[in-house]
Amino acid sequence: MSNPKAKLLIVDDEALMRLTLSTILKEFEYSVQTAEDGFSALAEIRREIPDVLISDLHMPGMSGFELLSVVRRRFPAIQVIAMSGAYTGDGVPPGVAADAYYQKATHPGLLFRVVKAMSQSERLSSLRDRPASMAPVWIPRNGHDPAGEEYVMVACTECLRTFPQILGKGLDGIQQANCISCSSPVQYAIVQPMHLVSPPAFRRKPGAGPSAALGTSDLNF
Ligand SMILES: [Zn+2]
Predict the structure, then answer these.
(1) How many angstroms is it from 220 CA to the middle of ligand 1?
(2) Is the pTM of the predicted complex or chain greater than 0.85?
(3) What's the confidence (pLDDT) of residue 142?
(4) Is residue 219 domain-resident?
(5) Percent helix / strand / coil, the chain, rounded to 5
(6) Closest CA to 81 of 47, 46, 30
(7) What is the mean pLDDT of residues 59-77?
């Protein structure tokens, strides 16, 4: 096949997960880049825009929730697969700006099928024309600076650089700040990470055997 395959960006703080996925996907002749958190993912996207972004949701630094909200707003044409071990099922968890969801540690063949379908559809103009989301960027509160002021890191949706923003009073609703690199106005909303991350209770039927705990009860042995 002479067509170059799709460009993928894999974002995960676990080095083994990055290595495993990128090794397998390169076998399928995709062009694969990796990043270890949202900040380095944005730096990678600045360098080259991927066709498909595969991102873990729970990472230190900039989480996947925040990364995906920036990507959906700034690069609506990038197709996004969120992955996590915290949600069961194959639907996109509520509040996650993604096109598909992969539950970690389930069969990776599912993930590869989604990547294949996305990389084949990526040249469809309908996706290219998807309107940019006007949703604000979500920012989890992440602590206090050395002077004791509470601050967040805001990702600029124009230049993709990040800058610290001291939080004032009145954090409800949509806030606005100007990027310190390019002066673009950036709208953001402060969220509590636990409001976004509410994994369903571990589903185990009373009295069910270990196969139910492993999620294999539907395999009809
Ligand atoms: Zn900027």
Answers:
(1) 54
(2) no
(3) 65
(4) no
(5) 30, 25, 50
(6) 30
(7) 88
